[in-house]
Structure formats: C-alpha cells, structure tokens
Amino acid sequence: MYTQLEQRGMPEPPVNVATLGKMKAEGERIACLTCYDASFAVLLDAAGMDLVLVGDSLGMVIQGHDTTVPVTVSDIIYHTRNVARGLRRAFLVADMPFMSYTNPNQALENAVRMMQEGGAMMIKLEGGEGQLQIVEHLARHDIPVCAHIGLKPQSVHKIGGFRVQGREPDKAREMTESAKRLQDAGADVVLLECVPNELGKGITETLDVPVIGIGAGPDVDGQILVLYDILNITQGRTPKFVRNFMAGHDAPLEAVHAFVKAVKTREYPAPEHCFS
Ligand code: KIV
To answer: What is the domain range of residue 170?
Structure first.
C-alpha cells in the first residue's frame, strides 16, 4: 500500500527529485533519453536510465511532422501513460506542448492532467523570462518543473530554424541570469539545448539544481538525447551532438546500455559532439 516507503528499501530505489540533486552534488552524471512507448520504456529502465522524457519530439519522430508544434496535450498524455507502464526505476518527465502553458492557470490545469492521467512525475516547459510566473505558479502547487532553455524547438518559426544559442557574450549573460531566475522561481531541473560548452559549464556551476544538456557540452550534470537518434532510426541529417550508439552493437538494449555507460564515464559527449 505505502509503495513509496517500501521502495526506499529496494537495492535500486526509484529515482526522484532528491536523487537527481544528490547525483549533481556527488558529480555522478545523469543519463537521460526520450521515450514514447512501453516496450522501449522497459528496455531503458533495464539499461539503468535515470530519467526518461516523453518529449514533444514525438511530433517529429512518431507522428512525422517537421516540428514539435502540432503536438497536443492529449498526445503527450497518451504516450506518457504508455511509458509509465514500462518504468520501475527511472524518473518520468513529460513535455508541455506548444501553447499548453500560455498563462499560469492553463499551465496548472494541463500539468495536473499530465500527472494524473499520464503518470508524469515532472513536467518540462520551454521557457525563459516570460515563463517565470508560470514556473512560480506550478511550483507553488508542488508540481515539479524542468525549465528548457537555450534552443527552444517550439519557437522554431520565431527564431528562424534550429541553431546554436548564446554564442554572443550578452546573450550568454542573459541566458545565465534567466536560468538563475527560473531556479529561484521554483524550477527543479534545467534542460539546456544547443549552447557552447563554456556556457553549459557556466550555467551548471551557477545553479544548485541539476542541469541536463543536449548539445550543451560535457560539463553539465546530465545528458539527454532523442532515443531514435541514438538507435540510428532517424533518417537524413542528424544534429552534431547525436552519436549513433547502434554502431558496434547488435541490439537496442546493448546500444542503450552503451549510452548510459558513455554518459556515466563522461566518454560522451566527445569534442565532435560539442559547440564552441
Ligand atoms: O522533446 C524532446 O525530445 C526534447 C529533447 C530535445 C530534450 O525536449
């Protein structure tokens, strides 16, 4: 009945927000991947993944759209529910889709649905200064929040493409300040996408909460990639930070194991996956 209490005594207890904070404090890298269904969730969990994200990247890799913009709250809930059934240890985060958090009340309503109907343990939203009030409102209602900064794929039409962010000193300073303000507003994790190594390191050192990077260099607290990219399922050009972990492996489970190991040993990302 008291599952949370029983789980504390397990040899591999489920990951929670406190575990992620402890990993940052102890310098243990956090291994994260996206996932969209129960079968892969079982596999990721078996490979020792710390955090699993039901990303709105599902709009591209599952639904075949060009961007994440068409994804809906119902899509995310459906996939989160399926992933939740496959996980035992990994921490489950779900993405708030485009336009599902335009004001604090709408954000709270959708976040509650994603937790109650989907089983998410934390929600992720793309945000900077404009989302401070929303993060504060969610945090005040005890909704765990991951704030996604740097390259924000939901803004692709506004920024004119997927490109590295924060290269100019004033933009880097602004991003560092807004990361700090998001943390102060109540964000429990910050996800940093597509920034130069030095900025990834600076933000990670500035914040007390864990920083998960994707194309943010080696000096962040954890690494996340899109599952289909590391399994070499994605056709065509992939971003510079992607590594094909199927190379040299016969099965997806081996590839996912190799990803976890490469993150933990800091072998991934290598210089060729990074931006300067
Ligand atoms: O939706 C997604 O897959 C993401 C990753 C890029 C981190 O947000």
So the answer is: 11-273
Residue whose CA is closest, atom 2 of ligand 1?
55
Distance, in Å, from the CA atom of 238 to the CA atom of 135, rounded to the nearest integer, reads 31
| Residue 250 lies inside a defined structural domain of this protein | yes
Is 193 designated active site?
yes
In whole angstroms, how far apart are CA 268 and each of 27, 94, 98, 241? 15, 24, 30, 10
Whether the full predicted model's pTM is greater than 0.85, yes or no, is yes
| Confidence at residue 158, expressed as pLDDT on a 0 to 100 scale | 85
Q: How many domains does the chain have?
A: 1
Please give the Cα distance from 223 to 57 (Å, whole number).
Answer: 16
Give residue 215's identity as a one-letter amino acid code: G
Phi-psi region of 41 (alpha: psi -120 to 50; beta: other; left: phi over 0): alpha
User: Which residue from 32, 54, 56, 234 has its CB within 8 A of the most atoms of ligand 1, so it is best to mutate?
Assistant: 56
Closest CA to 195 of 149, 126, 135: 149
Catalytic residue among 177, 193, 198, 267: 193
Instruction: Say yes or no to pLDDT of 31 above 90.
Output: yes
pLDDT in tens, 174-208: 999 999 999 999 999 999 999 999 999 999 999 99
